[in-house]
Design goal:
Elements: E1 9-13, E2 27-31, H1 34-38, H2 41-48, E3 53-57, H3 66-79, E4 83-88, H4 90-102, E5 128-133, E6 148-150, E7 155-157, E8 168-172, H5 181-200, H6 206-227, H7 231-249, H8 255-267, H9 271-286, H10 291-301, H11 307-320, H12 333-348, H13 362-374
Helix pairs in contact: 3-4, 5-6, 5-7, 5-9, 6-7, 8-9, 8-12, 9-11, 10-11, 12-13
Bound molecules: fe (ii) ion (FE2).
Residues 190, 194, 257, 271, 275 line the site of fe (ii) ion.
Length: 380
């Protein structure tokens, strides 16, 4: 048996936030971060709410820790909101997704798995969760996981359960109108990676394929224009990121994310930039697997001859949006060589690896890193 997981509503448009006017909650918790608050988006959300009491938790840091999720949980427990609005990037949504469950269920976040019966543990879904993504990439507004960091153990924890998914996602084009260019490029490549990984994953299915395919088409045709300031393309990218989120959320990401997570954690680089860097190299690695047929079919749908041409197109797109196409543009050879062993070992231990259509061994992983560092084509 399979279950397709998604929010109840996806509201989108130039004034999508006005959906909040219909909310009847008297106590609302808004989860955000400092920059979102400074940009005035928290006030924008408040202006649509009729609640008697609104509290704002804006202490979310990038790569949020378990402690942050627990701090937010404490605020939620004290307030007992009927509605939580998470406005921000993936980090903000991840914290809100965890806090919504933890405010009712006293459980170690690590113990929340896809098999946990939260209702048996006392969960009643007391608070509705509305996600308002302010970047176009993470898909966290529609996925059923929350990525938290255990700072003491230097590891990522991923509570996952279909009850974690937000009830509503609001894609309001105004909040992405002023997104910095670097973020447009990085988050756009993250969305593209989600869609490509979702389509080659061993857990792919007809629903995820349909969403990933359409997302790839939109991203390939609109990312550069969005980067150059085209408002219509920017709106399309916002929709495509959520579409890719629904796709990979119901399939899985794989090797690209294992490499990207690892590289990002060691060299403190933006998630989208990291996964984008590895995407074309991993696709080259997949040319010698069953995934080649799927990538060829995908290429033809885009009007390209085959997967190789599609990979070239991705490299071209990365250059157009001024992203690096090899690791040596980001780090020095010395620091690369010093970290290579950890990079390889952490990649092989990453939880996303298992759903990849071709899993590299130790030597292959090392060679993938070397090729990606030098910008050399992978032909093994
Ligand atoms: Fe990602």
């Amino acid at each position: 048996m399979w279950t397709f997981v998604s929010p109840r509503f996806i509201v989108y448009g130039d004034d999508a936030l006005s959906f909040l006017e219909g909310e009847r909650a008297s106590r609302v918790l808004i989860v955000a971060d400092e920059s979102i608050t400074k940009l005035g988006f928290v006030d924008m959300v408040k202006s649509y709410l009729k609640a008697e009491k609104i509290e704002v938790f804006s202490d979310v840091e990038p790569e949020p820790s378990i402690e942050t999720a627990l701090k937010c949980t404490k605020v939620a427990r004290d307030l007992q909101p009927q509605l939580i609005v998470a406005i921000g990037g993936g980090s903000v949504m991840d914290v809100a997704k965890a806090a919504r469950v933890l405010m009712e269920v006293d459980i170690d976040p690590i113990a929340i798995t896809p098999f946990t019966d939260l209702f048996e543990l006392g969960y009643t879904k007391k608070a509705k969760l509305i996600a308002v993504p302010t970047t176009s990439g993470t898909g966290a507004d529609v996925t059923w996981t929350s990525v938290l960091t255990d700072k003491a153990e230097h590891r990522k924890l991923t509570p996952a359960n279909k009850e974690i998914v937000p009830d509503v996602t609001i894609l309001d084009y105004r909040v992405v109108a002023t997104m910095p260019k670097r973020l447009i490029a990085g988050s756009g490549l993250d969305a593209l990676t989600h869609a490509v990984e979702g389509i080659v994953s061993v857990w792919r299915n007809e629903f995820s394929d349909a969403l990933c395919e359409k997302a790839i088409e939109i991203i390939m045709n609109n990312l550069e224009r969005s980067y150059m300031g085209d408002a219509e393309a920017r709106a399309k990218m916002h929709i495509a990121a959520t579409m890719a989120g629904l796709g990979f959320g119901n399939s899985q990401v794989g090797l690209v994310h294992s490499l990207g997570h690892t590289f990002g954690a060691i060299f403190k680089q933006h998630h989208g930039l990291c996964v984008g860097l590895f995407l074309p190299y991993v696709m080259q690695f997949y040319l010698k697997s069953d995934a080649k047929t799927r990538m060829d079919a995908l290429a033809r749908k885009l009007g390209l001859r085959d997967a190789e041409r599609f990979i070239d197109k991705i490299f071209e797109l990365m250059k157009k949006v001024e992203l690096p196409t090899k690791l040596s543009e980001v780090i020095s050879r010395e620091s690369f060589e010093k970290s290579l062993e950890s990079l390889v070992m952490n990649t092989l231990n990453d939880s996303s690896l298992g759903m990849s259509p071709r899993i590299p061994d130790y030597d292959q992983t090392k060679r993938i890193y070397e090729c990606a560092f030098e910008g050399r084509r992978i032909d093994f």
